[in-house]
Amino acid sequence: MTTETPLLTPDVLIIGGGPAGLTAAAELRALDAGRILVVDREKDAGGIPRHSDHTGYGLRDLHRVMTGPAYARHLVDRAERAGAEIRTRTMVTGWADDRTVEVTGPKGRYRIRPHALVLATGARERPRTARRIPGDRPHGVYTTGQLQNLVHLHHQPVGKRAVIVGGELVSWSAAVTLREAGCTPALMVSQYPKAESYGAFNAVGRAVFRVPVATRTRVTRVIGKGRVGAVEIEHLDTGKRRTVDCDTVVFTGDWIPDHELVRSAGIALDEGTLGPLTDTALRTDRDGVFAIGNMLHPVDTADIAALDGKHVALQVAAHLQGTSRPEGGVRLTVGAPFRWVSPQILRPGDPAPSRDRLLLWTDEFVRFPTVTIRQDGRTIARRTLAWPAAPGRVFRIPSGLLGKVSQDGGSVHISLEGPSRN
């Protein structure tokens, strides 16, 4: 005798209970979009902010400043008060068909076949193994997420002296966590000519935490038996190497989307972000499947991810009401030093992207960036922006620069020029 697998049929399934997914759930309920179900594999919903116990969250989406845990609780409470159902400890294990997922959780194994599906699984930092850094395999090596989970959720000790690999905003978040755990950040290592984070954070970090930053430098070896004892670092320009004593190493940044479900479904990926290819309405190439948050732009701040959730809610509601995807569309492409652009497709009649901004990632610092938009070899827009383009953080350009794009033309190419590329 066989037992048929239970099937749920909510109006919208949101996979991922971080800021993007929770905001989408609350907004969809506000639009009276029917039954909204959020599933998340963690014990508690809220995403990375749950264990990022410092302030700075909620500025753009909530217009207030909160700590990470308070921000996460607020988003969970808001979604639940709106009427969304949140199931935690619930893992989507695969696809039964193009719109049905297989799930395992506290309620057993079952399937979910929604009318619309929103992917909000976020991004993660590449661990040491993915960065192919040789040496010993001792204890005391973490990513920022692992460190913060260990310190803030499990209240476990770390070491006494740490090297932080990376100079992004999240790297200073790691420094804060280390200090709170009684561990001194002894050195921050960045491959770039200057630390990638915003200048204000770099200045405050150096003044308050007194963390020296070794720029144009990489870690070449981790040393230690049982526990980390040191790292070997190399200056990229001179080739000079030296050893830095430490008992903790934190690898920060170098983000990659959590895209396993996208890959297994055969949904088209963007070769730059490695997340799903989307248009400005945040549709994937699978009908009825949308994607939001940091799986699309790895990685931006939590409030920007949340605003993706607000933006997609209107598009999902329109889909539920029978609005179909417009035919055609123009592909957006980038050239060096840009690595990627998000979203990547401009369709006729679609809305502007979230916050009327295109998001891009650059591998070089340009203090006074001039952005040029070309289509079919013709320059259709060119503007010098008042904010720098810098590695390690998302670069935003007004979507109005695409105002003269022709839907009958070829792909649109976005390039970057300007002085001060060091």
Largest sheet, order of strands side by side?
6-3-2-10-21
Helix vs. strand class: alpha/beta
> For the record, what is the CATH homologous superfamily label of the largest domain?
FAD/NAD(P)-binding domain
Mean pLDDT: 94
The portion of residues assigned to helices is 10-25%
Overall radius of gyration: 22 Å
Domain count = 3
CATH class of the largest domain: Alpha Beta
The CA-CA distance between the termini, in Å, is 69 Å
Largest sheet: 5 strands, parallel
CATH architecture of the largest domain: 3-Layer(bba) Sandwich
Morphology: globular
Proportion of strand residues: 25-35%
What is the tally of beta strands?
29
How many alpha or pi helices? 9
In short:
This protein has 422 residues and is α/β, with parallel strands linked by helices.
Structural commentary:
It is a single chain. This protein has 422 residues and is of the alpha/beta class. It has three domains: 7-124 and 256-325, 3-Layer(bba) Sandwich (FAD/NAD(P)-binding domain); 127-253, FAD/NAD(P)-binding domain (3-Layer(bba) Sandwich), CATH 3.50.50; 346-417, Immunoglobulin-like. Helix content is 22%, strand content 30%. The protein has nine helices and 29 strands. The protein has helices spanning 19-30, 59-62, 68-82, 128-131, 144-153, 169-180, 199-209, 260-265, 302-320; strands spanning 7-8, 12-15, 36-39, 55-57, 66-67, 85-87, 91-97, 100-105, 108-112, 116-119, 123-125, 141-143, 161-165, 184-189, 213-214, 217-223, 230-235, 241-245, 248-251, 255-257, 289-291, 330-334, 338-342, 345-346, 357-362, 370-375, 378-384, 395-398, 412-417. The strands form eight sheets. A five-stranded parallel beta sheet has the order 6-3-2-10-21, with helices on one face. A five-stranded parallel beta sheet has the order 12-19-13-14-15. The protein has a five-stranded mixed beta sheet with strand order 24-22-29-26-27, with no helix packed on it. Helix 1 links the parallel strand 2 (12-15) and strand 3. The mean pLDDT is 94.
